[in-house]
Design a protein that fits this description.
With 451 residues, the chain is α+β, with helices and mostly antiparallel strands. The chain has one domain. It is 21% helix and 32% strand. The chain is built from eight helices and 21 strands. The strands form three sheets. It has a 17-stranded mixed sheet that branches. The chain has a two-stranded antiparallel ribbon with strand order 7-8. Strand 1 (41-48) and strand 2 (51-60) form a beta hairpin. The longest helix is centred in the N-terminal third of the chain and has 21 residues, at 2-22. The radius of gyration is 23 Å and the shape is globular. The two termini are 34 Å apart. Residues 4-21, 253-267, 390-394 and 403-408 have low confidence and may be disordered.
Length: 451
């Protein structure tokens, strides 16, 4: 009897493997061609339980020949430059690695982390150069010696996906600094203080104090000069890195049973603690805040390639990925779609404390509402639209930098705005709803030799 059961189980495994091998796979270059054939845009209309949903969003696929699987580690400034910084003026609290020095007659302030900083709630023994974990650089009015590192609030606050942005246009009130100019300032900081060869790809901008047709009120926040947040991904070999599975940079995961995606009890649980160490050591937050050529701040956490584990891996066709997203739309879970992108998400295992694996994944920037959160979402949406008129701004068709009242709420303002990961090989959504380590540890991948 036992032999018969073992034989049946073995047969089942063979059938499962055969089915997996029979699944259609393509190269990343083929997916790029598929996206280009669609004009780089997904346009489709759906009937959902919440009414009609029109999808008209960019599909971003790296223009590369191969999709390798790599490991990455944090990039840092040189120890020699750190020692130079330590000779400058001390800023911040006593445990902060924050200094100001003159660079080409310009005072520039650097924040590089904290002595004995905390990782996953536990204080480290790291001091000095070993404690360097980030690179925030403050120019002009953003320096603490100027009294504050924060610009005063300006409204309206508007959001622009990079596909809709004119890189040679200024989107903020009182400044002629273009988005391309912002990226130039940011890249200059990186090349000067970290090194050459690092490539950033802007993802979206958030304008505080956007240009508008009409002043919607007499409040001073609508009259102040504006400034812009630029969010970006690092490109490694032409492929964007979205962040870690438990920390997607400025992106957030939806937690199905949580009221807020920001209170991630799952990722903080002891069960998953070891699976976060490696990804937490490879932070990828990339934000620049710019007012003009003299006043800006860049926050840069970059990665270096540590090893190439697989030269290339097969991927599911674009059609299957879009079908998977469509199923979530038709189920009423995805309420709005902003963009669909292919790149890397970082994973690690407990033995990886200072590096992580970069795994091919799609991310769908969207508003995602799980079944058990529908009533809360409806209540939240109703109350927000009533009490916050500045959230009722939308771009005009003629000029995406001009915003007017329409009664429509931007998905970026939604508490449910998230980057939903999609497995690039199975095309299945990755919903973080349980404490299973399977969702956080380095996954097994299908290779070209197996198909």
């Amino acid at each position: 009897m036992k032999n018969r059961i073992a034989w049946i189980l073995a047969l089942m495994m063979v059938l499962v493997c055969a089915a997996a091998n029979a699944q259609e796979y393509v190269s990343v270059s083929e997916i790029y061609a598929q996206a280009q054939a669609m004009g780089g845009v997904w346009q489709q209309t759906f009937d959902t339980p919440n009414g009609e949903l029109v999808v008209d969003v960019p599909i971003t696929v790296p223009d590369v020949e191969r999709m390798p699987v790599i490991t990455v580690e944090q990039a840092k400034i040189s120890e020699a430059f750190f020692n130079q910084l330590c000779q400058g003026k001390k800023r911040g609290n006593s445990d902060e690695l924050q200094y100001e020095i003159d660079v080409d007659a310009e005072p520039v302030e650097f924040f590089l982390g904290r002595e004995y900083d905390y990782i996953l709630g536990e204080q480290t023994d790291n001091t000095g150069y070993d404690a360097v974990s980030t690179m925030w650089i403050y120019h002009g009015a953003f320096r603490s010696s100027e009294g504050t590192t924060l610009m005063p609030m300006a409204r309206p606050i508007t959001y622009h996906e990079i596909a809709d942005v004119d890189m040679d246009k200024a989107y903020m009130r009182g400044s002629d600094l273009t988005v391309r100019g912002m990226m130039r300032l940011w890249q200059s900081d990186i090349e000067r203080y970290v090194g050459e060869g690092y490539v950033l790809a802007p993802v979206r901008i958030e304008v505080k104090g956007s240009n508008v047709i009409e002043n919607p009120g007499n409040n001073v926040v609508y009259e102040r000069d504006g400034y812009t947040y630029v969010y970006a991904d690092q490109l490694i070999g032409g492929i964007p890195v979205f962040g870690g599975i438990s920390n997607l940079s400025s992106r957030t995961f939806n937690i199905a049973y949580e009221v807020s995606a920001q209170t991630n009890r799952i990722a903080d649980s002891e069960l998953l603690r070891g699976y976060r160490l490696g990804t937490e050591s490879c932070q990828t937050s990339l934000v620049a805040i710019c007012k003009d050529e003299a006043n800006y701040r860049t926050e840069t956490e970059l990665l270096n390639t540590r090893s190439v584990e697989m030269e290339d891996v097969p991927l599911a066709p674009l059609e299957r990925v879009l079908e998977s997203i469509a199923a979530e739309i038709e189920a009423g879970h995805i309420r709005e779609v902003v963009s669909v992108s292919l790149g890397y998400i970082l994973y690690s295992n407990p033995d990886m404390t200072d590096y992580a694996w970069a795994i091919p994944r799609w991310t769908v920037d969207c508003v995602y509402v799980a079944d058990n959160m529908k009533s809360h979402y409806a209540y939240w949406e109703k109350m927000l639209s009533r009490s916050n008129p500045e959230y009722e701004l939308a771009p005009t068709i003629e000029d995406p930098s001009v915003y007017v009242y329409t009664g429509e709420m931007s998905p970026h303002n939604s508490e449910y705005y998230t980057s939903l990961p999609i497995d690039a090989q199975s095309a299945e959504p990755i919903l973080i709803t349980t404490g299973s380590v399977e969702q956080f540890r380095v996954p097994d991948l299908v290779t070209w030799d197996q198909i």
